């Protein structure tokens, strides 16, 4: 064999090895989430859901022959932390996609960085709606899907007329309650009080005094997910406030962590653990098997995270590529059959969702009162086509 031929064969072998190594390079999923700050109560469950989805997908061969790799960053639950986390994930860690729930303050601060990096971003948190970017898709609920079940029940079944609204003073709290106030007006009710506390506030005493003096016959709150829900509810109960109480931000996991204080709270959610479907039962069993005694209660913040990773997988496979432009074109046209049913982010980068009206029971579980199939998110981003 000539030296020239040997060199050619060696070059072919090396090229093959390099190609195989390239094919096995991981697809990196950035998960910016509030491991500290207001969302620290719920963030560990989001990480768990991410870990299960990645483990399942990798066990089945990954995506296009490439393994998935999680890169988790603490966004501090706020704007400044999100800017640092997103900048690091996009420009230093070189993630291929961002998938996570965050506070609205964190999301709003991060979106310009996402646009600069041109990286797909699947936002998995319920939020106040109408946040639009060609790079962002949302698989969680917006006010049009979540508020009506609670207000309609209060007005129809509980004959509520006068409402007191309490929120955290940032985009989510104010946005949710602005929609709620308008919707209450449509049902013939009125708002007799509306108060806000900073997102990191913990003393609700003055606001609770106003609730008690208001003559309200129902209470609706929209606080930052996690810690503010806990402090507000605890102080409401300690003050003897027992009005019909609709919480627009509490998830099933946080409610369970509140203990007896959460009993009686009405929630409207796209996921509850009691969904009777083979997919949900399989998901719950897999979560229990993987995390055992460390398992955080699956909820309306963690399940969309799990499903979003599968949606990303479906988009990459449909596109035949993990390149950002290719994935962005595919994300609005794929559907995932998961614990919540079939989810497709096909409505102006948002998703029609089945919603559940429930009430928290003494053991922390949620009793479903009624369900509403395939509720439209309405006109969220009319300039964006999925």
Short description:
With 386 residues, this protein is of the alpha/beta class. Helix content is 42%, strand content 20%.
Commentary on this structure:
- Strand 6, helix 6 (171-186) and strand 7 form a beta-alpha-beta unit.
- Helix content is 42%, strand content 20%.
- It has 2 domains: 22-142 and 276-354, 3-Layer(aba) Sandwich (Rossmann fold); 144-269, Response regulator (Rossmann fold, 3-Layer(aba) Sandwich).
- Residues 1-22 have low confidence and may be disordered.
- It is globular, with a radius of gyration of 23 Å.
- The chain has a 5-stranded parallel β-sheet, sandwiched between helices. Strands 7-6-8-9 form a 4-stranded parallel β-sheet, sandwiched between helices.
- With 386 residues, the chain is α/β, with parallel strands linked by helices.
Mean pLDDT: 93
What is the CATH C-level name of the largest domain? Alpha Beta
The CATH superfamily of the largest domain bears the name: Response regulator
In the CATH hierarchy, the third-tier topology of the largest domain is known as: Rossmann fold
Terminus-to-terminus distance: 58 Å
Number of strands: 14
Q: So what's the oligomer here?
A: single chain
Question: Per CATH, which architecture of the largest domain?
Answer: 3-Layer(aba) Sandwich
Main beta-sheet strand count, sense and barrel state: 5 strands, parallel
Rg over CA atoms, rounded to whole Å, is 23 Å
User: What percentage of amino acids are in beta strands?
Assistant: 15-25%
Helix content: 40-55%
Spell out the helices and strands N to C: HEHEHEHEEHEHEHEHEHEHHHEEEE
Biggest β-sheet: strands ordered side by side in the sheet: 2-1-3-4-5
Question: Outline, from the CA principal axes?
Answer: globular
Number of discrete helical segments: 12
By helix and strand content, what is the structural category?
Answer: alpha/beta
Contiguous runs where pLDDT drops below 50 for at least 5 residues: 1-22
User: In the residues, how many domains can be counted?
Assistant: 2
């Amino acid at each position: 064999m000539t030296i020239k031929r040997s060199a050619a064969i060696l070059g072919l072998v090396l090229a093959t090895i390099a190609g195989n190594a390239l094919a096995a390079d991981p697809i990196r999923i950035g998960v910016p989430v509030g491991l500290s700050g207001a969302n620290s109560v719920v963030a560990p469950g989001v990480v768990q859901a991410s870990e299960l989805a990645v483990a399942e997908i990798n066990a089945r061969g990954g995506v296009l022959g490439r393994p998935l790799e999680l890169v988790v960053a603490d966004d501090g639950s706020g704007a400044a932390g999100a800017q640092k986390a997103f900048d690091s994930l996009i420009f230093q860690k070189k993630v291929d996609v961002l998938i996570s729930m965050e506070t609205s303050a964190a999301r709003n601060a991060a979106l310009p960085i996402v646009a600069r990096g041109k990286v797909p971003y699947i936002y998995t948190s319920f939020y106040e709606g109408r946040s639009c970017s060609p790079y962002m898709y949302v698989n969680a609920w917006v006010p049009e899907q979540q508020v009506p079940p609670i207000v309609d029940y209060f007005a129809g079944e509980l004959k509520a007329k006068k409402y007191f609204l309490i929120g955290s003073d940032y985009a989510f709290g104010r946005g949710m309650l602005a929609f709620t106030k308008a919707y209450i007006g449509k049902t013939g009710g009125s708002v007799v009080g509306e108060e806000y506390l900073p997102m990191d506030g913990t003393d609700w005493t003055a606001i609770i005094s106003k609730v008690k003096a208001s003559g309200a016959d129902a209470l609706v709150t929209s606080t930052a997910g996690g810690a503010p829900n806990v402090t507000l509810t605890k102080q409401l109960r300690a003050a003897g406030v027992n009005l019909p109480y609709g919480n627009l931000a509490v998830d099933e996991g946080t409610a369970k962590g509140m203990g007896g204080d959460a009993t009686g709270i009405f929630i409207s959610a796209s996921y509850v653990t009691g969904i009777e479907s083979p997919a949900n039962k399989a998901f719950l069993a897999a979560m229990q098997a993987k995390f055992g005694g460390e398992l955080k209660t699956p909820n309306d913040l963690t399940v969309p995270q799990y499903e979003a990773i599968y949606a990303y997988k479906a988009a990459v496979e449909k596109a035949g590529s993990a390149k950002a432009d290719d994935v962005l074109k595919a994300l609005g046209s794929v559907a995932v059959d998961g614990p919540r049913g079939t989810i497709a982010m096909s409505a102006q980068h948002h998703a029609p969702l089945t919603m559940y009206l429930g009430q928290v029971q003494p053991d922390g579980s949620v009793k479903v009162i009624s369900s509403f199939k395939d509720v439209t998110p309405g006109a969220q981003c009319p300039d964006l086509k999925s």
